[in-house]
UniProtKB/TrEMBL annotation, chains A, B:
Keywords: Amino-acid biosynthesis, ATP-binding, Kinase, Lysine biosynthesis, Nucleotide-binding, Transferase. It comes from Roseovarius atlanticus. This is Aspartokinase. ATP binds at K7, F8, G9, G10, T174, D175, Y180, R185, K210, V211. Pfam families: AA_kinase, ACT, ACT_9.
Amino acid sequence: MPLLVMKFGGTSVANIDRIRRAAKRVGVEVAKGYDVIVIVSAMAGRTNELVGWVDEISPLYDAREYDAVVSSGEAVTAGLMALTLQEMDIPARSWQGWQVPLKTNSSHSAARIEEIPTDNINAKFGEGMQVAVVAGFQGVSPEGRITTLGRGGSDTTAVAFAAAFGAERCDIYTDVDGVYTTDPRITDKARKLDKIAFEEMLELASLGAKVLQTRSVELAMRYNVRLRVLSSFEEQSDDAGTLVCAEEEIMESNVVNGIAYSRDEAKMTLISVADRPGIAAAIFGPLSNAGVNVDMIIQNISEEGRTDMTFSCPVDQVARAEKALKGAKEKGEINFHDLVADTNVAKVSAVGIGMRSQSGVAAKMFQTLRDEGINIKVISTSEIKISVLIDRKYMELAVQSLHDAFELDKSA
Amino acid sequence: MPLLVMKFGGTSVANIDRIRRAAKRVGVEVAKGYDVIVIVSAMAGRTNELVGWVDEISPLYDAREYDAVVSSGEAVTAGLMALTLQEMDIPARSWQGWQVPLKTNSSHSAARIEEIPTDNINAKFGEGMQVAVVAGFQGVSPEGRITTLGRGGSDTTAVAFAAAFGAERCDIYTDVDGVYTTDPRITDKARKLDKIAFEEMLELASLGAKVLQTRSVELAMRYNVRLRVLSSFEEQSDDAGTLVCAEEEIMESNVVNGIAYSRDEAKMTLISVADRPGIAAAIFGPLSNAGVNVDMIIQNISEEGRTDMTFSCPVDQVARAEKALKGAKEKGEINFHDLVADTNVAKVSAVGIGMRSQSGVAAKMFQTLRDEGINIKVISTSEIKISVLIDRKYMELAVQSLHDAFELDKSA
C-alpha cells in the first residue's frame, strides 16, 4: 500500500471543527488507497500556555521537566484526531512519541532524532489500520524521558516519518497555501511557486520565509523526501500548494525563484582593529560563546596594520554581542577603537538554483538597487543566493523592485 | 529514609500559586527527613475540558483514545510541580504512569492496578532525589497504551504507591480539612474526627460523604495504609486533618461516629408479586443486567401466595429500572399488579464500629426519628451501619436530631 505522511500545524487543529476539517482531508487520501501517517501539532495557543506556566515557575527551568510539560499538547491532539477519524469509520489510532518509539538523543528541548523503528506502526497497518496519528514534536531519550525537538519540531517529525516509512510524499498543511516568490503582503505581484528545489527552500527558510522549519527541509533534502506545503483552509486539488523536491524534478526554472527578507537584522562594526593573523578567531570566538548568531561578515581593506570588521546579527542579540566584545577587549584578547551598532538595517536576498549556471545575477541586483537609490551596506553571496544589507526603510522598495527586475510574477 | 506519599487534588493545584503552596507543604515534610512521593491530579477544570472535547467528537468514543487524551492533564501538573520543587532547591523529578511504570490491566477508563515496580524510583532516591512527582490517575496497559483508573483515580494511585513503597502514611490534600461526623452544612454541631476506622470510612464514602473515593479506602484497608485527609488551604500541624486507619489504632470511640445521608434515592415497590422460590432472582437479575444499582431490599409478609417487593436505587436509574421490570413482565419472567416509584425519599445512616459491641443503637435511632414524627419507609442494617429511607423533606431534621441523640458533637 502506498503511504503518505500528512502534517497539520497548530492553526489547522485549533479546535474541534478544524480537527474535523483536517480529518476530512485525511479521508480523501485514504479513499485514494493510501495508508496515512498523520503528524499533529498542539492546538494553537496550547504550547504557549504551557511554556508560560513553566516560565512563571522557573525562568531557568530543568529542560527535562519543560519537555514533560510542553509535549502534552500534541498528545491531546493526537487522541482527538484518532477519535475524529474513527467517527468517520476510518480505522485509526494515536501514538505518542514514546510509543512509536521515536528515539532521540538526550538534548532536551532541542533533541535530535536518532531512530524511528517502523515495526509497531507497520504491524497495525497490517491488521487493517488505515491511519496512524502521531503526536509531533516529541520523542523519548535513552533514559526513557520525554524529549522535544524544539519549536517547529512537528515539521521535522513529519519529514523523519516520511523518510523512515518511505512515504510517497510528505504533505505539510498550514495556514498559507504554498511558497511564494516573495511575501504577498509586500507586493501583490508575488506568485505561488508550483515547485521549488530543496536548496532554494533552505535558503528561503533560513532567510525569513517562515513556511517550513529549516531543519525539516535539511532532513527532507538528505533523505529525498518530497514535501508539499499547502493550506488546510481551502479545498485542495492534487497539485495544490508547492512541492519542495530535488532539483531534478524541476524541468525549467527562473534564474531567481524568490526574494526573501529579514527585518530583524543589525550591523555591527569594530573600528580600527589591530590586523594580525588570528584576529577573526579572536573576535568571533567570544561572540559564538555568547550565543550570538553572526550572519554576514566583511573585513575592510587594511591600512597601516589596522582594519574595520563588520558583521550582522539578529537585532535582539546586539546587547549580548557588545558585552562579549567589550569583555574580550578588557581581557586584552582584541583591540579596537570603537564599536558601532546600526540597528536600522534589513537583509534582502535573491535566491535561485539557476544562478549556478547563469552569470550576471549579482550585477542585475546591484543595478536595480542603485536605480532606486538604495545604498548597499554589506554583501554576501553563496552559490544560489545573493544577500545585501540595506537601510530598513528601503526594504519594501527593494523587494518590490527586485521582484519586478527578475520578473518573478511570470513563471519560467 | 522514612517515606511519605502526599496527594494533591485538582483544586489544590488549580494554578501556579496553588502549586507553589502545595510544594511548600512538601518542603515541610522533606525538611523533617522524609523521602516523598507526590501524586498530583490535573489542574481543576482541565480534565472536564478534555472530556468535553472527546464527547463533542464522539459520544461513543474509543476508550483507549479517551485515556490518551484525558491523562494529559496530570502529566502537565507533574512537570510543573517538579519544576516548583526544584526552584525551592529540592531535588525532584516527574514521572508519568508509563515511566514508573504503573502497570494496569486493559480495562481502559476504569483500569485496575496490577503492579507498581519500585526499582526506578528507589534508584533515584538512592541518587539523592528527595521527591518523586507522579502523575495520578494514569497507568499503562500490557499493550503499552495509556490507561486511566476512572474518576477520582488519583486517590487510588496515591494509596497504591503508599502500599508498594511501604510509606509511613498517605496524606490526601483536598479542599476540606478532614472527615466530619456529618455534613457541616446541615448542622453546625458537626465535629471533625481525629481518627476514623477504614470500615467506617468505607461506609461513609459509599453513603455519600464525598471526601475519598471508595476504591482508595478499600485499597488502604487491604494493605493497611494509614490515610490522612487534610486541607491544602490551611497551615497544617502534625495532627491536622483526619487519620483513616485500622480499628486497633483507635483506642476509644463513640458508638456512632458519623451520620451520612444521600438525597438522590428512590424507592420502588412491586405490588402483589407472585411469591415463589426464585422470585428474587427473577426480579433482580434483569435490574442488574440493566445496570441498576439496587441498594436496600425488603420483602413484605406474603399473603395468599402474593407479596410486595420494595427496593431502593439512585433516583436517576428509576426509568431504567421500570423499563427492565416491565420488560421482564412482558416476557412472562415475573408477574406483578403494579409498579410504584417514590422519588421523594432520602437515605440517612448512622455508622460506627462501636455498634458491634453495643446494642440498642437501632432502637435509639428509631425512637429519635419517631419523636420527630418522621416515618421510616425502609430499614437496612450491617454490622456497623443502620440506614433508613425517609421522606426527603425530613432529611435535614433527621440528620440533626440523630447527631444530637448520639452526642456526636462530643468526642469519646
